[in-house]
Amino acid sequence: MAKTTPTILWLRRDLRLSDHPAFCAAVARGGAVIPVFIRDDLVQTQGAAPKWRLGLSLADLQARLKDKGSGLVLRTGEALEVLRSLVRDTGAGAVYWSRAYDPDSIARDKHVKAALTEDGVDVQSHLGHLMFEPWTVETKTGGFYKVYTPMWKAVRDREVPEPLTTPGNIPAPETWPESETLEDWTLGADMDRGADVCLPHQLVGEEAAQGRLGHFVAHVIGDYNDKRDLPAVDGTSGLSASLALGEISPRQCWHAGQRALRDGGGKGAETWLQELVWREFAYHLAYHTPRITTGNWREEWDAFPWNEDEDRADVIAWKQGRTGEPFVDAAMREMYVTGRMHNRARMIVASYLTKHLLSHWKIGKRWFEEHLTDWDPASNAMGWQWAAGSGPDATPYFRVFNPETQLDKFDRDAAYRKAWIAERYAQPTDTALSYFKAIPKSWGMSPDTDYPDRIVGLKEGRQRALDAYEDRPF
Ligand SMILES: Cc1cc2nc3c(=O)[nH]c(=O)nc-3n(C[C@H](O)[C@H](O)[C@H](O)COP(=O)(O)OP(=O)(O)OC[C@H]3O[C@@H](n4cnc5c(N)ncnc54)[C@H](O)[C@@H]3O)c2cc1C
To answer: Does ligand 1 come within 6 angstroms of the Cβ of 244?
Structure first.
């Protein structure tokens, strides 16, 4: 009987071994499995922090695969060319991957699938990054959901298959194809001084993500409803980077949340399940209306006179965490040091940039793309357009978050301010001081200087935004 040819498993945002349908299908096919990661343009053009975080994840996966007698081949180049050369060199008869849903990945994958199929290769794409395929969730009239709540209602009782286990045996090829090395890739090169400061804040790899999920459902989820809006409290899962890179699967999270719900996790567990569906919603929007990642979802907003100058003094103050607005500055510094920012803080800094500073959400989206280790093309785009008012399910234009009253509600004991702003306190915290170790020296900031005055009065900024929205040309 002829030996089954090897299968190339092209890994992208699915950097795990468990609950991996494409991986299981590759093993089930019967031949050797050759896991591959390709550093193509979509990887090369990522921002500094996500690219660095990706490198950590790949190192972890490589070690896990090695432990199981397998490996991870690293190659640089255009995806189709790399896969064709691997097929040629290994005699592989199949290429499998997990589906991606952002417009750039879809365009690439369609092209690769068509060409390899034409070559006679068995090409399969599998579910893995989402729970619900975007084309399977439809409104009663046949369209896709543009508003979150009806989508939640449509999917909350759906059957989500139980997660798959890790393949027991991953058959290795007799000879491994040549691989580049992570050291040569220097994915952290653009991090400059920030990498050492940021590293202790990372939860890297599949095992760590599973451990965190277990801790979260055992100890945190019950209070999720009450604590998830408090930025200084460990009240959320902290799994966004793991989900963005696929170190954990959404259905592993879903089933853990469902179990917590059944075991008395109550409202907290239900709200957390809803958050997982916000992530699905973002990808459904990106799939059905790809323009959300590059332009105003509501196209009439193209006529709105946003400031588009990234180098304007107030925009620079926003980026550097020196607006004189403590909630905004704490949040921007938190992101610089940890690669993450609390969700409430993301809403506040996004509202402040687009409303108080009347600056384009694209400026903020780009800054987040550069600095978030949990950067995700769909959630980031949706989050910014939600805050700016240009998205499908957006906050109304007249809702301008007041960063001062938000502090009264969500940082009553000033713990968040203390954690991130050194200049305001006689004995600054280590985290607040670490910001000054991470930022470029050229910013000329020091913990010993006075905390800046507000760059814009809150009432004045709010009124300016409301006037601009009232006068909008549509
Ligand atoms: C302007 C802006 C930009 C954002 N950019 C990103 C981004 O690049 N990457 C990213 O993962 N999230 C983004 N979010 C969503 C949200 O802030 C983060 O997912 C959340 O803070 C992650 O923390 P957590 O893992 O502790 O979440 P939890 O509260 O524990 O929620 C569990 C998971 O649900 C998903 N989720 C939660 N809230 C949202 C949401 N509002 N939208 C979509 N998914 C959600 C995430 O995958 C998260 O890990 C953005 C939000 C805003 C307002």
So the answer is: yes
Query: Confidence class of residue 1 from pLDDT cuts 50, 70 and 90?
Result: low
Does 10 qualify as catalytic in the annotation? no
CB within 8 Å of 124: residues ≥ 6 apart: 22, 25, 94, 95, 96, 97
Which of the residues 361, 367, 375, 386 is marked catalytic?
361
What is the tens place of the pLDDT at every residue in 422-471? 999 999 999 999 999 999 999 999 999 999 999 999 999 999 999 998 88
- 279 CA: nearest ligand 1 atom: 44
Residue 10: inside a domain: yes
Which CATH number characterizes residue 109's domain? 3.40.50.620
| In-domain check, residue 394 | yes
What total of structural domains would you count in the chain? 3
Instruction: Give domain status of residue 96, yes or no.
Output: yes
- Tell me which residue range forms the domain holding 22: 1-128
327 shares a domain with 456: yes
Domain end, chosen from 264, 288, 312, is at 288
Query: Each residue of 401-416: pLDDT tens digit?
Result: 999 999 999 999 999 9
Q: What's the order of all strands across the beta sheet hosting 122-126?
A: 73-76, 33-39, 7-11, 94-98, 122-126
Give the rounded distance of the alpha carbon of 336 from its chain centre: 15
* Cβ atoms of residues 231 and 410 within 8 Å: yes
Query: Are residues 282 and 316 part of one domain?
Result: no
Q: What are the tens digits of pLDDT across the range 289-313?
A: 999 999 999 999 999 999 999 999 9
Residue among 33, 31, 3, 193 at smallest CA distance from 97: 33
Identify whether 420 is a catalytic site residue: no
- Is the distance from the beta carbon of residue 19 to the nearest atom of ligand 1 less than 6 Å? no
CA of 446 to the centre of ligand 1 (A): 31
Q: Is 325 a catalytic residue?
A: no
Task: Assess if residue 37 is contained within a domain.
Answer: yes
Note the pTM of the prediction, 2 decimals: 0.98
Does the beta carbon of 188 sit less than 6 angstroms from any atom of ligand 1? no
Cα(215) to ligand 1 centroid in Å equals: 19
